[in-house]
Design a protein that fits this description.
Strand content: under 5%
Radius of gyration: 27 Å
Order of helices and strands: HHHH
Shape: elongated
Largest sheet: none
Number of helices: 4
Amino acid sequence: MKTTIDLPDDLLTKAKIVAATRRTTLRELVLQGLKLVTESPPAEERKQREAELRDLLKAMRASNTEPMVPLTREEIHER
């Protein structure tokens, strides 16, 4: 389907440069951008997922985070 979009001149120029450096067409660049925007989750969902992941990583963090030190022979045999 064909459509007409009014873009600012500077944005169109930048988009053409990006398309040329990627060796693709302006059409393909616009398609990639639209897919990215329409298929990615909304910002609220993304923030909630990031918060859940942070909480999970925090819960998985070991309580004994002191560095390990080599034991002497005597300490090994004592244990």
